[in-house]
Design goal:
The protein is an alpha+beta fold. The protein is about 40% helix and about 10% strand. It contains 20 helices and 15 strands.
Length: about 525
Amino acid sequence: SGARGSKNQIRQIGGMRGLMGNAAGKTIEIPITANFREGLTVMEYFISANGARKGLADTALRTADSGYLTRRLVDVSHNVIVRENDCGTDEGIEVRAFTDGKEVIEALRLRIVGRTALEDVVDPATGEVIVEGGEEIREAQAEAIEKAGIEAVKIRSVMTCKSKTGICAACYGRNLATGSHVNIGEAVGIIAAQSIGEPGTQLTMRTFHTGGVSVAGNDITQGLPRVEELFEARKPKGIAEICEADGTVVSIEPRPDNKTEVRIRGEEERIYVIPYGARLKVSEGSVVHAGEGITQGPLNPHDIMRLNGVEGVYQYLLKEVQRVYKQQGVDINDKHIEVIVSQMLSKYRIDDAGDTHLLPGALYNLFEIEDENNALEEGKEPAQYKRELLGITKASLATNSFLSAASFQETTRVLTDAAIKGKRDRLLGLKENVIIGKLIPAGTGMKPYKNIDIDYGVNTEYMESFNTKELRAEYTEDDTPDELYAEDPADDLEEDLPAEDVMAEEEVYEEEIPSEEA
């Protein structure tokens, strides 16, 4: 099973147990100087019990949180289904090795294998094309790209897919379950939600593996709550001061009120006042870019969206979610996180409706806005809009399907709103079809598979000939009386009447029996 002891456990058995944490996550000031080999005093035993109790309580509470996160992820992404082979987009995202400081956490080849290259990947030394644009990057090619010293590769992504409903196979890449090209009809949204939600229960058991021993840093603000915070696009606690524009740090000076003043000069000079106690990440002469933190701590994804756009916020969310899971040794493929983030970024807010019928301040899909703008006559003013980052709960409720939204949360509000606006549900996702008892539009329930004749491997010609009376006669013994093969009077009846009438007669016959008894 791969279970093995850690350095921490050896230390508790042979060295000393050290400091313990209490249920509130604070460190108890009395350290346990004994180890398990010598045995613990009564006092030490009861201090240890704090940690054990916390471990159990944590697991019980967090399992529920993890299940709720999975439910929200499924709700936001259930309508992401592979609908076509290629959407024909010319956009993509740039992928680099995943690093934390100078340490490489995930190599570039592992991040690009099984994805579709957006443009030709060329060896800088020889000029040879390693992978052509539009081709799937295979294992050998990914290794060749890494050996050639290429640092960044542009790939097709769910984030930039132009399919009107769902996504296309080229933007998704390889099906991770089979290792082959993803099929049309694959419910990749549900797969993504479950791939992120399922290891959530492992994030929860953090305290279990340390045996309640206090670990430097905050207890669990990493784990599950951090993943939730990211997917809900919340403003995090202990937020870092963010740099508004590119520039160089000119000076860092303390102020009389214990705050620190950081001057950054770019196209213009900006002064940032850093509160007391915040740890600076920059020093004099540092080059900083817009959207980077000047102090240590998490960033607000909405600020990154404002300063660095969609690609910036996607890279930040991906990196942060991956970091939490990687700390627990859980591997999640980037494409699952891409599917969720693309749903968080699927809505656009109308700034100015122009001459369209759209409502200012309302949220729409890009295609709805483009259709309205294209339908305008010449000289009319098109709608102005900007992309909005929504948390997964908000995104689920902002979906076009009122059945899906009503079955999620705030049922009364969703249904009254739908009734007032006279909404129509196009039944494109999975939930709304399950609710009304229709076949789900995924897998073989999709339109392309509707009229396929299924061959069961039966030799129909042979079966038909076997059913003819001549062939049956050959299989009988010579002395069998011919009367057995006399024509059955029921045969005539079935030949004269269409099948429905035969059924109708039988039904009538069955109904008459009880009436006779009565």
